[in-house]
Every structure is written in C-alpha cells, then in structure tokens.
Design brief:
By secondary structure, the chain is mainly α. Helix content is about 65%, strand content about 0%. Helix 3 packs across helix 4.
Length: about 140
C-alpha cells in the first residue's frame, strides 16, 4: 500500500475505533453476555430458544460456548438479535492506540532484522556496533513502507 494511502487508512481506522477504546476496561461476565442479559431480562432458556427458533439444548450450548470463548460470531449475533440487542464487534489494541501498536510492531521487526544481521557480521568479525541507532533507522524505514 502506498504510504499516503496507508496513512489515510490509519487515520480512518483510529477514528472508527475511538468509541471502542473504553471497552478494554469492561470485563465480560464470567458466564458470558448471553446468560447475563437473558437473566437480567428475566428470560428463561426456553423463551430464548423460542425467540431464536432453536432447541433448548442448542441455546444452552450457545451459553456454554460463549463462556468458554468458543462461540461463533454467527451464533452470538443470533442470540443478540433474540435478546433485542446489537452485537458490537471490534479489535482494539491492548495498550495505546493503533499508531502506537504499528510503531511497536515496526520496532520489533526492526530489532529482529538488525540483530540477525549484527550477529552474522559478528560471526564474520565485521560487526560495526551502534545497534540501537540501526534499529531506530530500520523502524522508521518500515513505518514509511
């Protein structure tokens, strides 16, 4: 991707993810959102199964699957619809923002590349040092790609 388009895409993504950044602070109910919402609404498994046009064992399995992080997005969307909810889905950086995540990734890649070359050069008794400086340069180059 051309650098100017990559920069534009990054800015668009940062704007899109901004409302979701605070979601990092929210912990999922131990037994999952489906069960928590169903119980808060005073809905039985049987009622939820009827709303989902599914069987009681299948809906119970959905709840277990979500609690065990094994549910599909399709199933989660079905349950959300039946509960009168909207499934909101996003991937947000564990720390910082997208730009910082991108910079950390570039720095990791640069560190691996520079250290590999430096090691090879050292084996050939040609190491030149200034590794930190080289990592910084390589990270900047990777970010411009």
């Amino acid at each position: 991707m051309r650098p100017e388009f990559r920069q534009l895409r990054l800015e668009q993504l940062e704007r899109s993810l901004q409302p979701f950044m605070s979601a990092r602070e929210v912990s999922r109910p131990q037994k999952g959102w489906i069960r928590a919402l169903r119980q808060a609404l005073g809905m039985t498994l049987k009622e939820l199964a009827m709303r989902m046009k599914s069987s009681l064992p299948v809906v119970a399995q959905f709840e277990r699957s979500e609690a065990e992080y094994r549910i599909t997005l399709k199933s989660l969307r079905q349950a959300a619809d039946a509960l009168g909810c909207e499934l909101v889905y996003a991937l947000v950086p564990k720390q910082g923002n997208i730009r910082e995540l991108m910079e950390r990734r570039a720095r990791e890649e640069a560190t691996n590349d520079v250290l590999a070359v430096e090691h090879t050069m050292a084996l050939e008794n040609q190491a030149v040092g200034r590794v930190k400086e080289k990592i910084d340069q390589e990270a900047k180059r990777l970010l411009k790609k």
